[in-house]
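writing this on my phone so excuse typos. first protein, seq and then structure
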Amino acid sequence: MSMSVRGWALLVALLVPVAPRVAAAAAAEQRLTLDEAIGLALRKSEGIVIEREALGAAAAAARAARGAYDPLLELEGAADRSQPPVNSSFSGAPAGQLAPETKSLGADASIRQLLPTGGALTLRGSGARATSEGVFTPLSPAYSTEAGVELRQPLLRDRAIDGARLELRVTKAGHRGAAASLRRTLNETIAAAERAYWALAAARLGVSVREEAVSLAEEQLELTRSRVQSGSAPRTELAEPQAEIERRRGELLAATETVARAENALKLLILGDGDERSWLASIVPADSVAAEAAPVEVAESVERGLSARAELELGQAVVDRRRAEAAFASDGVWPRLDAVLSYDRFGLAGARNAAGPAAVPAGLDGNWATSFQSLGRGDFDAARVGVVLGLPILNRAARGNAEAARHLERQAEADLARVRNTIRAEVLDAAAALQTAGQRIEAARAGREAAEVQLSAERDRYGSGLSTNFLVLTRQNDLSRARLDEISALTDYRTAVTEMARATGSLIEERGIHLGGSSQ
């Protein structure tokens, strides 16, 4: 998946509906839905900020790489004066001087365009005005003009790929990799938020079970106290329910600590450094852990994971980069052989040099306009067709670089295969966990219902004098464990659903988070 930079920049603000901030410490509790927890986690995540900035940098690098194909305009202007000594009897210098003095004022312009074939097209033009005291120089001032075109095309090295095309492919792969890395971070952030949310929900339900267990033990103590007062039971019978109450209160305190730890783990994901008051608020999950198990399509889930996981796009981006680098390095083994085609036209005009010949050559008498007319007619031109061969001896550096690049390419391909197998294993593990958790829900529900019936029957027998405190308290403990097992089965199923969505790479879409973007 590739995205526009602007789409990613607005991502955190648009991912989910606006979630209310956790209430200030003045509120004892703050109810929080799962969607709100996800929204807060996405807004707070430093990892998403880092990956988003990395994506922006990758997009900028891709744009910079395309800049290699921007036309290059070069302008040059110069004024020259020269009077070099001439060791000749025909120097053309005025009487009494060893060399004529020449002055010129000129300008050059060229536009160079890199071509997708690795070649370069250059358009050039120049104009100059020159004066000379030389007696052999017929024109002073002289107006010279030139216009030409040159095409240089590699035939071996740089024909299939060159530095510019390598940079384009590398930055394009880098942009895809950055987008995949951000998507992976989003996926992991959502999964972490959901796991923490359901862990807190399970911990709070566990506290409720422990509180009920304490209440049941207190009720049993009251029943026992009534029997003791009526004389139907000895006073020593009070010891067992009293001891059980204290044991269960210890379990309640441990469960309360578990809630605090689970709550802090969720806060760590959803609250930032500026939320000091919110850190002191108590979070209550508003979504129920109740769930109905659904069938799992294992083969379909594996196929989805192999097509949607961001890790595969990230690994493929690395492979594409290594392939481009290997192609460029292998291309460097070839000798350089360039074809060069050029064509130039020239114009010349001027006035008779007072120190030179008596007459101006026909057609050259004039100024800039005359020179440009001559240029346009093509009175003077030059054409060139040639080849340039560069043959490095031994070329050990290029051969070594090509071999190293091939090793890195095969390494990236092997790593991609490893990622694919890892994803298969993760999806299969998630499917097994989801199936098991779904089956546990029915078993735990049936166990809890049976424990309720057994406790009710045992309490009836106790009321009839046919049971003991030990048996009643044991049935109460059985019911507590059964209820905890049911809570565990439900929350494990919720967590397994999250893990399956994460393993298949569909968590973002399944949670209704829409990512808009465009290709680079």
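second protein below, same order as before
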Amino acid sequence: MTLEVILSILAGSAAAGLLYSFCLTPVLGVLQQCGYGERELIRWYYRKGTMLRRRHWLLALCEVLLVALFTLCFSFLGSAWAGLVSAVPFVGLGVLYIVSSKNALKVPLRRSARMMRLGGCCFLLLWAIVFGVSVGMWFAGEAVGAELFKLFRFLPMTLLPLLFPFVVSLASVLMKVYELPHNSRFIKRAQKKLTQNPCIKVGITGSFGKTSVKHYAAEMLSLKFRVIATPASYNTPMGIARTVKDGLEGDVFLAEMGARREGDIRELCELVRPEYGIVTGVGDQHLETFGSLEAIASEKKVLAEYAHKVVLGKSVRFDKAGALKEGRDFEAEDIVCTENGTSFTLRLGKERVRMETKLLGRHSAEDVSFAAALCSLLGMTISEIASAAPLLTPVPHRLEKRVSGGVNILDDSYNANTAGALSAVETLKLFSGRKFVVTPGLVELGELEEQRNHALGEALVGLDGVILIGETRVSAVSAGYLSGGGDGTKLRTLPNLQEAQLVLKNELKEGDTVLFLNDLPDNY
């Protein structure tokens, strides 16, 4: 093998590796949505009907056919020139794939420092694979004396799209040698900063409503305190650590605490060391990963063990060892829901006051009452709490109302729990005019998933249009709708949200209301 051949293989391998690095960007995005879980990525990729897998097969098929055709047609120029000419369809198809995949994910890839490092590792792996196979093909040709091996030395790399999820998974495993210690140091710095800061620390967990309660509590407490809260749905150690890194200039720190597996809440409590806590409830969300409601309750109970005072939801039943130092002495009573807001009587101990909010849904009254109970523990009077109620704003994508072209849009796309979904449908039915819902169903409910989706379908009876998205969970929703007496002519199943939006664009008119319920991310 001459130096010229080695250099050509090196250059060709680097170019192919770079091109494929951009092609596998959607796979990196799904891995990110899976919390960098390699098993979850592979399981998602090989489930029935995954569009991305089909696209990879199509890309590989087109490339292998066209590269082979071009190589044969220009073989009279010699293996070096034929390989160079065959790069034209290879690069052209790759660029076309990258452009067409620009909006392949509903949740865009976050180009964090970790993701950029992972992308670099993927490039090196792809380059090494292409270089190794190409050199192997060359030496195979030398060994058997067949020029075809040299001629088609780059052809095997056209099948690499079939290996994208494995390349990404391998890169992720390799990078964890660096990432895990790096994240650990980052979290320990945040822990030290939190320990040294005298601000009041509050942990908020539960199977539902965490983000909403945190949002309302932050807005109410802001009338009296300087408040720092983890943004959006940041509820992991890294999410909290990033919030702490950005600054702790405040009197109260609100930390949302999520849990998918045993030990998650303890890790977060060790980081934050909360003095106060809120456990919104124990429900069937994440039943798939916990296995039982008892396991979920046991996990939520950890916050009650750490905090000095804890506000509890109705569905929370801890034993005496787990709680409670404070218990539940608050209630949202006489709830009145309309299409313009929710009002209720807040009871805090023996005191009562009427609360008027712009928030939609019966569950919003319960969420506000949690926030009010915390405010009371931190020294706010009931009159101060009531004065904050009209100022409360909806949490983005959680039964958030918008009006476009005279059509009411209820954006509940981040809601994924059973109680919240039924409350959203109940709110939709309060609106005048025609009412539509778009939903893929509910997820992560384990053995209860079919039952809960069937109940959701029954709740949709009476609406003017029901659009179900996807293939996996909607069969139970559809069965529930039809068995509950729903009109089959008003029920449609579409493959994705984009097609549903096109249908609605042609069908909706002024005065109509549409509820977008639980827009699942790509990793489902």
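The domain at 198-391 is CATH 3.40.1190.10 (UDP-N-acetylmuramoyl-L-alanine:D-glutamate ligase). thats all i got for now
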